[in-house]
Fold:
Amino acid sequence: MAVDDLHPDLTVTRRAPEPEPSFPGFDPVAALDGLGAVWSPDFDAYASGEVGAHQVRCALCETCPCSCPEFGTAEHFALVDRRHGRRT
Structure:
């Protein structure tokens, strides 16, 4: 049953305001880049719908499928350091 069926005289005279961004001028990509985030080389293609998630290379090892060492191992942390350009 539609609202008009319940209240035939009801008319919408006012629309809800368009939502405003919580932080006008805030650029989340710039903020993450400033924190040293490392992106998958395929992220833009994925975000635009050009490729599916199964085609996105890992941001850390840059392969698809991911071939990262087990999380928390010395090899894993060495890969993190290398990807962020840190010398160990």
